[in-house]
Every structure is written in C-alpha cells, then in structure tokens.
Give the backbone structure.
Amino acid sequence: MKIGVIGAGRLGICFALLCEQAGYDVLVSDVREDYVKNLRNKFISTNEPEVSKLLSTSPRLSATNSNSKVIRDCDIIYTLVATPSKRDGSYDVSAVWDVVQDIKKVKKVQGKAFVVGCTTNPGDCKEFQKELDKSGVDVFYNPEFIAQGTIINDLRTADMVLIGGKRNETYDQLCEIYNRIQETPPKISIMSTTAAELVKLAVNCFLTTKISYANMVGQVMALSGMEDEIPTVLGAIGDDSRIGRKYLNFGFGFGGPCLPRDNRAFASYAKKLGLDYNLGDTTDNFNNEHATFIKDYFVYRNPENLPFYFDYVSYKKGTDILTESQQYRLCVDLLDDGYEVYINDNDAIMDMISDDLSDKYPDTVKFGEPDDDVYPIKF
C-alpha cells in the first residue's frame, strides 16, 4: 500500500514522515516548486522538532508538484491543504474541492480512498463523497489533534484517533497506519464524516472554554487581592476528576492557527442552526477582553516602570508562529502606550518583527538580552 499526501506543509510533512518511518512508501505533493526540490534533497528549513532528522533518513519518501501523480500512484490519498477562515468564521474548503476535481480527472481511481485531514465544516465531507460517488472513491475524515512545535510527538502519542467514514477495508488500513505510527495502540473512534467534523470543532471549543474559565477565575482572584493563590485555587479545581488540571492555568488567552479558528467555526455552525447566542462566541469575546486585562495586570505589577521583557512573543514558545498571539498583542499594546519593551525570541520571529517594530517604535523597542533591569512578562 502506498500513501499519498497532498499538501506537505507543517502538518502534512510531519504525517508523511511518520508514515515513511512506519515502513510505508509515501509520495507527497505541494504547489511550491522550491519546497518540493528541497524535499527531494532531504532538507527543509523548519523549527518543528525531529522533522529535519526524519527527512534526512527517509528513503521511501518522494515528492512532486503534481496532485495527479499522487492520485494515480497511491492507494490512500490524504489531503492536508490549507482551509482558511471566512469572515463568518466558517472554513473555506475550496482547496479541498480542487483536489476532489483533480481526483475526478484521473482515470481508474475506483477503490482508492480520499482522506481529508484538514479542518472542514460539518457536512463538507458528505458533499465531497457525493461528488466522488461515480468515481468509486470513498471519502474519510481524519483530522489530527496537534499543537505547533510538538507535531511529531503529538502524532505519536495522541489520546484519540478520530475517523469519519465507512467501517470497511480502508478503515482497517487507516487503523493499521496509526497502530504503526503511535507508540502505544491508540483509542480509535469511528463515526459518520459529519459527526467527526463536528467533534474536531467541539473538542477545541471545549479547550478554549476551559482556558477562558481558568482566566476568568484568575481575573476574579487578582481583583480580590488573592493573586498569589491563583495556582493553588485552580489546582484544587482541577483535582476534581470531572474537570482535570490540563489547560486550567491563569495566563495568556488562547491563540495560534487552530484554537481560535475552530472556536469561531463552531460558533458559525451553531448560528446556521439557529443558535444565535452560543459558547463559541462567548469564549471568543472573553478572550479578546482578557488581552486588555493582561495589559493592565502587568502595568499595575510594574510600579517602577521598568522596561518590559518578553523572552518570546510567538503564540507558543519555541514556535515561529505569530498568528493571534496574545503575547505579541500585549507587546504591541505596551509599545502603543509608550512603554519600553525588550524582545528576545528565536531568529525566525525576530526576522519577522524587527524591521516593522523598529520603524514604528524606534525609541522604545529593543531586541536581544537586556543590559538594564527589566520587568519580565511571565505568570
């Protein structure tokens, strides 16, 4: 069995490399010609742990710019293309539809499986299946629950593997892939594609709710003069087995390329069903308000008006992603208010922000380790 991966971005290349390491022949496709050349040369620039090492020793992994070649040559065709958010919060799945059309153009695809790994809206995969019925291709939905900066580890140690689709031979093959990839036999949940699409959004909406709840408790305690006991109180709440301690910390709100978008997509889907006021909107609004609270919180805690020091401004330390980073938002908000700020992040982030911030705040922003006393941004 040969596995194809269409869309070899951050997640796609990680999944492809683990499949290769598990003993499968893997063919990936990507629209970026230079990137495909680098994949063929077994070297790409990345901050994602283990990727460079796995790529350098991946004899069974090959790369192409042709989706059609992947479709012709492979038995299971994963797609992990980008699905950007629309203004209403739902996902734009036009890139997935492009792959569906590519499949329809290739002859003799009957019996192949099309596995959608990127995030979609509930009901999208059902429509993909309708389009591919005549081609004899089964559609599955198989999203990953990962975080940037730990993708390889998250794929190896996932709590649960979610598969939407028919319980048939392809389902058995998908289960076997994960049995090989994961360090221990995974818990696999099988359901309809629409139910699986809903689960993906609902899981992350629950996480954003839990993060927001912890920050709400922290706000209440800070304003009540009990700031030092916030970790103790949240720890006690988390000790209740119905709640648990994961994601129950006072600090920055949720950010990055996944949680905020899934939260809004869940809210958008609920609105389409007539639920105008829902938890997705509530947590999103609170998360924005919490960013303002955090700024006031740190300004109050710095009565000597020392320069503020950020040891990272990416949404998650060690990553090169600024998408909806509350750390970076705080940094810019402080600079807008005239405060002096030091930033010392990884080279990729510094390259992204240094010129722009230096132009806007020439007198108040500095980069690298500080020489003077500073107020560190940490909880």
